[in-house]
């Protein structure tokens, strides 16, 4: 018995359409550090020469139950921006500046317009924070997610001078003023509470 992606509920042509539509959006985030275009299995990034003794600082995050609100409101163009900001804030409090971002999106049913809207938010967030969106993965898993549901996660890679790392385990409390992303977003834990009122 022959099994195809289509029989499994995966729409390859919709995925291809999505990739073509996001190429110019993604390229618009590229900074001088990006040394590869779209299409490789991995992305290449040059360490900025402005750093004397750089240390990479990385963080992975999601947006929690805020996703449910996006789905119910049918507004998908802000969730990506929130995701970037969550990740940027996580490394900012370590003394790092963002370099590049990678995303992961999983759908019950891939709709290219919804996915493009999410990427538009990712692009806005990356541009606002000076990070290049250099990689991502999109999956369609109808057996795992309901038709209209999806999940997003992201990883930010930044850098800090070794001498300027902020390690909260070694810091006296309240001695440092943390710099956070200027881009506003409701915190995902707050949204877990807000969801109860919908």
Commentary on this structure:
- This protein is globular.
- The protein has one domain (about 10-35, about 50-195): 2-Layer Sandwich (60s Ribosomal Protein L30, Chain: A).
- It starts with 11 loop residues before the first helix and ends with a helix.
- It has a 4-stranded mixed beta sheet, with helices on one face.
- Strand 2, helix 4 and strand 3 (about 130-140) form a beta-alpha-beta unit.
- With about 200 residues, it is of the alpha+beta class.
- The chain contains 5 helices and 4 strands.
- Mean pLDDT is about 85; it is low at about 175-180 and about 190-198.
Q: Low-confidence runs (pLDDT<50, min 5 residues)? A: 174-181, 189-198
Mean pLDDT over the full residue set: 85
Q: Look at the helices and sheets and give the structural class.
A: alpha+beta
What level of helicity do the residues show? 25-40%
Q: Write the CATH architecture name.
A: 2-Layer Sandwich
The biggest beta sheet reads:
4 strands, mixed
* CATH domain fold name: 60s Ribosomal Protein L30, Chain: A
H-E order:
HEHHEHEEH
Name of the CATH first level: Alpha Beta
Q: Overall 3D geometry?
A: globular
Strand order of the largest sheet: 1-4-2-3
- Give the distance, in angstroms, between the N- and C-terminal Cα atoms: 46 Å
CATH superfamily: PurM-like, N-terminal domain
Q: Number of helical segments?
A: 5
Q: What gyration radius follows from the Cα positions, in whole Å?
A: 18 Å
How many domain units?
A: 1
Number of strands: 4
Quote the beta fraction: 15-25%
């Amino acid at each position: 018995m022959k099994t195809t992606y289509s029989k499994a509920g995966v729409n390859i042509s919709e995925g291809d359409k999505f990739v073509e539509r996001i190429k110019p959006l993604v390229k618009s985030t590229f900074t001088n550090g990006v040394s590869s275009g779209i299409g490789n299995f991995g992305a290449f990034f040059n360490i900025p020469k402005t750093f004397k003794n750089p240390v990479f600082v990385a963080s992975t995050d999601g947006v929690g139950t805020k996703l449910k609100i996006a789905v119910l409101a049918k507004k998908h163009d802000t969730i990506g921006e929130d995701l970037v900001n969550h990740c940027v804030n996580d490394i900012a409090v370590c003394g790092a500046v963002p370099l590049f971002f990678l995303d992961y999106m999983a759908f019950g049913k891939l709709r290219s317009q919804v996915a493009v809207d999410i990427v538009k938010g990712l692009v806005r967030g990356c541009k606002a924070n000076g990070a290049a969106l250099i990689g991502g993965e999109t999956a369609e898993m109808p057996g795992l997610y309901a038709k209209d549901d999806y999940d997003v996660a992201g990883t930010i890679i930044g850098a800090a001078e070794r001498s300027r790392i902020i390690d909260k385990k070694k810091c006296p409390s309240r001695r440092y003023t943390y710099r956070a992303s200027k881009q506003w977003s409701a915190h995902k834990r707050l949204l877990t509470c807000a969801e109860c009122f919908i």
